[in-house]
Design a protein that fits this description.
alpha/beta, 8-stranded parallel barrel, 8-stranded antiparallel β-sheet, 30% helix, 20% strand
Amino acid sequence: MEKRSIFVLTVLLTVCAATFAQGLKDAYKDYFLIGVAVNQRNVTNAEQQALIKREFSSMTAENDMKPEPTEPRQGQFNWEGADRIANFARQNGIKLRGHCLMWHSQIGRWMTSDTPTKEVFYQRMKNHIEAVVNRYKDVVYAWDVVNEAMTDDANAQDPYRQSVMYKLCGDEFIAKAFEYAHAADPKALLFYNDYNECDPVKSQRIYNMVKKMKDAGVPIHGIGMQGHYNIYGPKEEDIDKALTLYKQVVSHIHVTELDIRANQEMGGQLAFSRDGAAVTDSLKQFLADQYARVFRVFRKHKDVIDCVTFWNLSDRDSWLGQNNYPLPFDADYKPKMAYEYIRDMKAPLWQMPNRPPRRPNQGQQGQGRQGQRRQGQQAQRAPFKPELAFPELEGVKEDFVPSPKNQPGQEFPMVNSQGYARFRVDIPHADEVTVSLGLGGRGGTKLKKAYDSSFTGQTEGPLDEGFHYYHLTVDGGTVNDPGTLNYYGSTRWESGIEIPAHDQDFYAMKNVPHGNVQQVLFWSESTQQVRRAFVYTPPTYGKDKKKYPVLYLQHGWGEDETAWSNQGHANLIMDNLIAEGKVTPFIIVMTYGMTNEGGRGRGRDRGAVAKAFETVLVDELVPYIDSHFNTIACRESRAMAGLSMGGMETKAITLARPVVFSYYGLLSGGTYMPADLKMDDKRVPKPKLIFESCGSRERPDGIDESVKALTAAGLNAVGYISPNTGHEFLTWRRSLKELAPLLFK
């Protein structure tokens, strides 16, 4: 059972509460405004309205205030969409940015289609700007006056975009637009807005143009940096250089259209790919890291940055399409990892990824020199040398050994005495490999391509002692580590790694008499199928005619009947305890608890599934075991225990069938209280023992409270808290070690 499965509902509620304890606007109140570009759906849908109000202190109309939407024909204005957004801002006290007054891509065709003189064009532009600015001057605090007037061509002699407006008027149209806007609203901040603003060539062109205009007295108050970036760039130093340059000429900078794409495209060009990339754990981390870098630079320049605006509320709304995964909120308006990194001002975890190389055409394999090499011998690869792939790190002991869970003869993964883990996988043609272990769900451990083309990496810190599930993500696909054995968990066969525990001797393979774990198949009439169980019999079983008591031991969610003997080492724990004379030898029966039917709380009704398993266990498996093994077939010689969801099943079944079991055990699976056991009803038999346990990082207070209440009610109750563990197999191994000597006394 994975750690993250503990008390699923409680955790989800806790996470949600923490996530929204403060919005972005609150987190950045001492830095700058946090804005968002909105559409009509955003300001009319109640849930999206609530999201805007919680997270943002500034808004921009994505499209509804642009020239063509507001004045599609000369003198005929369409205010409906813009009014709706402006009214939402007014009603909720949210600042509103105006976007935009002049843009080559969306001015009304009527402005230039008849090839007007410069004077006629200026009058048309003046009338439009005055009408729009005057209508919203009570709520709009800043305007993007001119949008994208500089060229993207780094080799162009003329730095200006060759738009219809520029060809008609030269750069004077820029000055006129700012003059008309300032006259209409002298209090508004006026911005020149452009993309690729961190490019060294274009940033210099923007600076030169703004400086020229300001020197001539044009009322340009600020520069709008659109911020259409991607996970591969720009680098922090490039953003920093651009901001440092711009603040020499203006005292206000707004980041006006921030989003970060998952592909290699950048900028505000209207021709772009919507294909995006597979949303892997690594991609989530890369996105979060790039937002972390960007905001780290923004915070550095809080003296000049007044507002940072995300270009759309969620991936669903994004002009880039949701497959490009560009925003802090996903297509369901839920916060991503990137949101957490922005809000909590976290540092990036990984280095910025290299741009992926262009792959050869797969249909041409076998052609040309590359094809000839594939058909012939592979190029010789350098031999692997651990000292080159894993340089010594201060504080990390170099006593790494292969994990006990490795395939025979496999060196990796390796573990050391401190709990660090090292990985090496040989996938030379992969681009990206990540191990799911490490860093508490923050992206795992990213492996790097070593000199021999294998992928290697080490966990950033030590892992908890004991057993852990994990898998690899290779170029977006989930696969197991070929170096390890596989263990069923999270409803799939996963790789496993064992971190040495200081007390691991109690489950070690020793030179003592060993019992037997055998598979049995039994017919289930209620489910109309053959079902499987594994049965541990102690070393003395079958050597005489002695009969044995039985413990029915259940796994957790995502696991199956193999868990306790494979991951849990239940058989080795019993062998060692029996050899030390600490327990009464007994049989252990482990069967699938139907915990994975329909997933966690989805699909089939959990109550119905639990009832179905009760029938399988009590009415079908118990009679089968009693008829096929030398058991003491009575209540006083039967126990039931389970870990996590298996504990929940144990509680439900023991309370429903108290005449079947006499010993109860909940291992990180909840607690009993006296009221559960119907203490006043003399007809209901009471258990001879109730054992409850959990890790010290779980909810030990609940165990203590339950044991005190049960003891006060006259029941034999024992609690155990596993030190320095959480919801994990070391907790449950230790719990079985403590429970076993208490049974069948």
